[in-house]
Amino acid sequence: MMKENWNMPSLDKAKQRSKNQAVIEKSLFNIPFEVENLGVGRKYYLRTYGCQANERDGETIAGILEAMHFTPAENVEEADLILLNTCAIRKNAEDKVLGELGSLKRLRKTNPDILFGMCGCMAQEEDVIQTLLEKYPHVDLVFGTHNIHRLPVLLYQAMMSKEKTIEVFSKEGEVIENLPVKRFGTHKAWVNIMYGCDKFCTYCIVPYTRGKERSRQVEDILDEIHTLIDTGFKEVTLLGQNVNSYGKDLHLEGGFAYLLEEVAKTGIERIRFVTSHPWNFSDEMIQVIAKYDNIMPFIHLPVQSGNDEILKIMGRRYTSKDYLTLFHKLKDQVKDAAFSTDIIVGFPNETREQFEDTLKLVDECQFDNSFTFIYSPRVGTPAAKMEDNVSMEEKESRLQELMEHTNHWARVKNEAYEGKVVEVLVDGISKKNENVWCGYTKTNKLVNFIGENIHVGDLVNVKITAAKSWSLDGEAIK
Ligand code: 5AD
Ligand code: SF4
Questions:
Q1: Do 424 and 441 meet the contact criterion of CB atoms below 8 Å apart?
Q2: Is 0.85 surpassed by the pTM of this model?
Q3: CATH domain 11-167 topology
């Protein structure tokens, strides 16, 4: 079954990159009059998977739904609309979503009018849409990452006509500035600085699901941050698939280093940014990070592999030596910096020796935190077409071995905090113990601590009393 009015994704189209600069739209989004009250008396349940860009999209989706007077449901049972905002980065992320979709189907028995929707990166994939049509016919609404602004109209169509609605654009559109947002935090916020990715690492689906690199204008970003400061926010995380590329499409002199300095000058207490590609991390960026106390000394620098041949086939554009040079430069210049990384094991045909190069690099860098993954073929990417002679059993055992190294260094790094006093931005009460507060250090370490007269959003000095692998324990000092 294929409807003429559906807009289906195409990975081939998504691969193309035009030279045209994205149009910045300051007033494109609107909620048509007839749609405005669609949510009155209706509840929505939104579940977001994956990265921070998706989390931030979730805040936009919630903002749109609440502008249409939907209210949040406490659980799926009381929802009239269930939306899964999905992630496509690895197969296990997709399997989780499909499993959830299958189990949610039961809700239609008790609520025949319930509407199931899927959006996010999975919606951008042709094979996923085929699977939905064949195996998950209860899904009523599918939209992608490029047309969130169309949600009011699409929802109206799906609810009123009771017809399946699919609208996914493969080519990115404008940068839309007037979308509503419902911030899920009260003192920490995500701020998009750019969308998309043009790096095309050979294993990665992101350049296909999120389109070409498009930067927001400096003044729009700064306006957003000033509004956040005025409403009590203490920390912003600047988001981009590769923030180092910020401003290239705008021909902005100074690029990300310039933006980062302007953000630092707003005076907001804490600034973080993700993700930086090791390839175009400029000296100017390092200088700005080192210069401002409100730019956090915490750098997520995905290495992916420690072997030059694998890095080359991955399309990463740096050697392990380049990576180490940058790493040590950052370490020398940014005082007390902490580092995290991403690593993929079991890339097609990775040999034992090549894997051992990754272990060597990990032991040299001694990362505070590492996100380690088994390579997962993604349909449409060049790596998915490569033959692979490494068994899954071998990949799993390499992952275990790698994690022994990364976990060891995480613990060693945490132990170095014992007895020190650190500044913690308070997030709230610890999930495990209601007498304990939790929050993060400047270097992004989770701290559970006791103290009197503490409030969410406070910056508190905490003495570290014990280190664990993934967190620190401490007590507030006056
Ligand atoms: N398989 C496994 N890991 C992947 N990543 C991206 N694509 C894949 C894939 N196909 C990892 C990379 C990236 C992180 C966000 O996810 O390490 O940095
Ligand atoms: Fe994927 Fe590479 Fe772009 Fe990161 S830089 S999103 S790994 S293509």
A1: yes
A2: yes
A3: Rossmann fold (3.40.50)
